[in-house]
Design goal:
The structure is a single chain. By secondary structure, the protein is α/β, with parallel strands linked by helices. It folds into three domains: about 170 residues, Thiamin diphosphate (ThDP)-binding fold, Pyr/PP domains (Rossmann fold), CATH 3.40.50.970; about 150 residues, TPP-binding domain (Rossmann fold), CATH 3.40.50.1220; about 200 residues, Rossmann fold, CATH 3.40.50.970. The chain is built from 23 helices and 20 strands. The strands form four sheets. Strands 3-2-4-5-7-6 form a six-stranded parallel sheet, sandwiched between helices. Helix 2 links the parallel strand 2 and strand 3. It is globular and about 80 Å long.
Length: about 575
């Protein structure tokens, strides 16, 4: 008679993750994690160790956003507290990450156990599912439950807390396998196809519209429908705007792409939306960026239709005039045979985009003349445009920061208008968590090692998460970081100067930090740049160095349109 082998709970966890096809584990190794780390080593799951648990969370997030497959952030109980900011960032983008905590002992629960923290309760508002495993024989079951929750419907992160005594205890090797599902591998994600009687009124409303616009949100990406959206919008001549703060759904050079649905960062979106008679929101939410669906952002005379792939999203969008439960890709397929197009309206939006770019270029030319005459530092919009001059169609651009993010959004639209192509872009989501830029750039480089990955980071954002560049050296990932160095938290100081009675700012200045020397000291490439004309060359040298590189660019503080608008709103006692 064969004796059943017994495994530690940590080894069972590792096998359960292996069965799901997990490609990477991101962690900061700790004593509570050791049983599972041993199991991961035996299962040959690559483990990436990081200098901080927040970095591990952002790495898992970046990996998940790019692959559309769950990744794992695995930490100990004290490390769990450090992952909370990464959970918040993932929440805004609905990244289906598995956050797993090797938590304090179950045997002494609620008795002051070593490093005891109620991680389940803390995580609950930030994830779709947060639970403590109380029986090692059910580890596989809970991994399967968590995976299903993360990837089903409206995706999102999940959290499993597995007490350390369960991690170290031994259980039958086949524990839990006697129950369904017998196949614990990945399953195809369920998609909602539109019911014909619900679809036809939506198609009829669109067919009857004279000036429709599409506002697309991040669920288009999670559904894998971005190419379908671009194709149908091009064929029907429908202008597409992006919901601010979410992942790019098509290249800025794509013909249907106009820019963000944001009156401040992309002013041509205002006349388009104000003049529209129908706003078709696909995979998007009526949140603060959309003024919750209300005037004056979406006019009362404009019909608002929300198409979402889950009931959760539809319930959130209850204020829309019409709702349709449908996978975004399936809905785009339904539009293919609509039978009409909107060429003149489409061309008008294209013309407005071109005029907007021309105005900015004229303004920048005047700024350049003044810079040369007065010896001023680099304009942040010039910085982002010059960086893109050094990049090609196979390169990745990541951006992180406050004003840095907003100026780069404008720059990528301008660059794309002239046919500038990038392989992809990543940026903080709607919750704007500073410090995720380096981990996101690392994620892109891990998944696409033969391409160049460039991060444009504000100096404040780099101070928040830049030390994670050490993991680039450890993992052999030569990214290039360009610092927008204005020596302060410019997005905050500019608001203060507009809001405070004395017109000055407080607690937002940095000293002159030699970021390039910091990276050189770690063994990378560093270069200081003080003139606009030298930026592109320095970026090329950083990419060619084959090392993690830092191009430290001295810039001046120029208030971005979105910060100017934000301070005006907050002066009226509303941050929305």
């Amino acid at each position: 008679m064969n004796e059943i082998q017994r495994l530690r709970g940590g080894a069972i966890l590792a096998r359960a993750l292996k069965e799901k096809g997990i490609e990477h584990i991101f962690t900061l190794a700790g004593g509570f994690c050791n049983p599972a780390l041993e199991g991961m080593m035996e299962c040959q799951i690559p483990v990436v160790n990081t200098p901080h648990e927040q970095v591990a969370g952002h790495l898992a997030d970046g990996h998940t956003r790019l692959t559309r497959k769950p990744a794992v952030c695995f930490v100990g109980p004290e490390g769990f507290a450090n992952t909370v900011p990464a959970m918040m960032e993932a929440l805004g983008e609905r990244s289906p990450i598995l956050f797993i905590t090797s938590s304090s002992t179950l045997k002494r629960e609620n008795a002051g156990g070593f490093k005891e923290i109620d991680d389940v309760a803390i995580a609950a508002p930030l994830v779709k599912y947060s639970v403590r495993v109380r029986d090692g024989a059910r580890i596989r079951e809970y991994v399967d439950r968590a995976w299903t929750m993360a990837t089903s419907g409206y995706p999102g992160a999940v959290h499993l807390s597995i007490p350390v005594d369960i991690m170290f205890s031994s259980f039958a090797e086949d524990a839990g396998l006697e129950e369904r599902p017998f196949n614990r591998g990945t399953r195809a994600t369920a998609r909602a196809w539109p019911a014909p009687d619900a679809l036809e009124p939506v198609l009829g409303a669109l067919r009857a519209a004279e000036r429709p616009v599409i506002i697309a949100g991040h669920s288009v990406w999670w559904a894998g429908a971005e190419a379908q959206l671009e194709s149908v919008a091009r064929n029907l001549r429908l202008p597409v705007f992006g919901q601010p703060g979410h992942r790019k759904l098509m290249g800025e050079d794509a013909e249907p792409w106009m820019g963000l649905a944001d009156f401040h960062q992309y002013p041509p979106s205002k006349p388009a939306i104000m003049e529209s008679d129908l706003v078709l929101m696909i995979g998007a939410r009526l949140d603060n960026t959309m003024n919750f669906g209300n005037p004056p952002f979406l006019p009362a005379s404009t019909r608002v239709i929300c198409v979402n792939g889950s009931h959760e999203e539809l319930e959130f969008n209850r204020s829309a005039d019409m709702l349709l439960l449908s996978d975004p890709g399936a809905f785009c397929e339904s539009l293919a045979g609509l039978g009409r197009s909107w060429g003149a309206w489409f061309d008008q939006q294209r013309a407005r985009r071109g005029e907007w770019v021309a105005r900015w270029e004229a303004d920048l030319a005047a700024e350049a003349e003044k810079d040369a005459a007065e010896g001023r530092k680099v304009h942040p919009l010039h910085l982002s445009l010059e960086v893109q001059k050094a990049m090609g169609a196979d390169d990745w651009l990541v951006f992180d920061g406050g004003n840095t993010h907003f100026w780069t959004e404008i720059a990528v639209n301008m660059h794309g208008w002239h046919g500038g192509r990038l392989k992809g872009m990543l940026n903080p989501g709607i919750n704007s968590m500073l410090g995720c830029g380096v981990p996101f750039a690392m994620s892109a480089k891990r998944l696409d090692p033969v391409t160049n990955v460039v991060l444009i980071s504000g100096d404040g954002a780099f101070l928040a998460g830049g030390l994670s560049i050490e993991a680039c050296f450890q993992e052999g990932l030569p990214i290039t970081v360009v610092i927008d160095n204005n020596e302060g938290l410019d997005a905050i100081s500019q608001q203060q100067e507009r809001l405070f009675a004395n017109g000055v700012h407080v607690a937002t200045d940095f000293r002159d930090i030699p970021f390039h020397k910091m990276v050189e000291g770690l063994g990378g490439y560093g270069e200081l740049v003080t003139r606009r004309e030298d930026i592109a060359g320095a970026v090329r040298r950083g990419m060619a160095s084959g090392k993690p590189a830092c191009i430290n660019v001295k810039t001046r503080g120029v208030i971005s349109p979105i910060i100017a608008a934000t301070s005006d709103k907050r002066d009226k006692a509303s941050i929305e």
